[in-house]
Structure formats: C-alpha cells, structure tokens
Amino acid sequence: MNQRRINVFILTVSSLIFCFNVNAASFEKYAPKLMHFEGVGYGIHKPIWGERDFSKSEALKIHRQHYWDRFHGDLFESQEVAEVFIDHIINAGSGKSKANIKAFEAIIGAEQDGILTVEDVKRANSFYFAEQIVNPYAKYRVLYYKTRSHVGENPGWIIRAKSFMMRNAFGIVALTDVSLPDSIERRFRHVRL
C-alpha cells in the first residue's frame, strides 16, 4: 500500500511539472530560428562583444543570458510572443530611449517606461490570443526597419519581422489590417507599407 501511494505521488508531481512547463516559452525552441536568422556570425555584434570570432555555443550563451533571460523569456506563456519581442531586441537593440521596449509595452497596455518587468510579462500573458500582441509588434518592427537608413541594403530585416506574423481565426492577416496604439501609428504615419 505504501509503494502505491509513493507511485501516485510521483505521478502527480510529474504531471504538475509537465503542465507547468508546457505553457512556457523556451529558449531551446527559439535557438534554431535565431541561428537561422543570424547566419554565419551568429548575430554577435563585434564592437559590443569583442573583435573575435564566436563559436555557436558562445553565441547562444550570450543570446540566452543577455537577451532571453534579461527580458524574462521563460516567463512568457506564449512562445510566439517571447520570440517576436526578444528577437527584435537582439536584432535592433532597445532603441533610442528604449523605444523598442516602450512599443511592446504600448501594445500590451502597460506603462511605457522602457523597462520590461515581470508585471509586464504577466500582462502579456493575460491576452487570450498571442496574435493580439505578435501581429502588432511584427508590424511595429516592419515600420521601425523602414525608417532605418540601411534598410535597402538589408532587406532581410523586413523579411525577418514579417516571418513572425500569425494567422488569426480568419486566415492570414496583412500588415495593413493590423492596428497599433495611436502613439505608434502617429510616429510612423509617414511610412508606407
């Protein structure tokens, strides 16, 4: 009888651990996509990280510690939401006055202070559909890249941003169909999609 209780206890704990981890974003799921986008240099900007070649494992360690962990990637319930946000921070940085973080905060309706907090992540997790965050942030990314002076030389920036777009219940969504908070729309009103 005692052995049976132990087995039931172990099964219950294992089930709880599995259920908890199923609903969380994971750097390990994101890493292959990141490496595909970043290519040969693994996305390590040498003026920041040092003038040397980095191995894939070193690059992944930098991306995990300085981006995924710093911006609470494992606390996001949606893999897609974590990826669209953190990928932009990896690719473009926080932006002038942390504009790229503030845009994410505006989309989720949080205080726009440029500091992604655990409370901000909880707010993002409260959205029922991931595309309610992912598609607006992907649109923001496209608009952001279109204002960069080197966008013509780097068409991959826009391709990368668009790759995060999610289908909704009605099918594929065009960028022009996605709404952004007024503050972001006003900032990019001069940009054509």
Structure notes:
The model is unreliable at 15-21 (pLDDT under 50). α5 runs parallel beside α8 (131-146), α6 packs antiparallel against α8 and α8 (131-146) packs antiparallel against α9. The chain is globular. The chain has a single domain (25-187), classed as Chitosanase, subunit A, domain 1 (Up-down Bundle), CATH 1.20.141.10. 58% of the residues lie in helices and 0% in strands. It has 193 residues and is mainly α. InterPro entries: Lysozyme-like_dom_sf, TtsA-like_GH18_dom. Residues 1-24 form the signal peptide. Keywords: Signal.
Put the structure in a nutshell.
Keywords: Signal. The protein has a single domain, classed as Chitosanase, subunit A, domain 1 (Up-down Bundle), CATH 1.20.141.10. The chain contains ten helices and no strands.
Task: List the keywords.
Chitosanase, subunit A, domain 1, mainly alpha, 58% helix, 193 residues, globular
Strand-residue proportion: under 5%
Mean pLDDT: 86
If classified by CATH, what would the architecture be? Up-down Bundle
In one word, what is the shape?
A: globular
CATH C-level class = Mainly Alpha
What is the end-to-end distance? Answer: 68 Å
Topology:
Blueprint: H1 2-22, H2 27-38, H3 46-49, H4 56-69, H5 79-92, H6 99-108, H7 118-125, H8 131-146, H9 156-162, H10 182-187
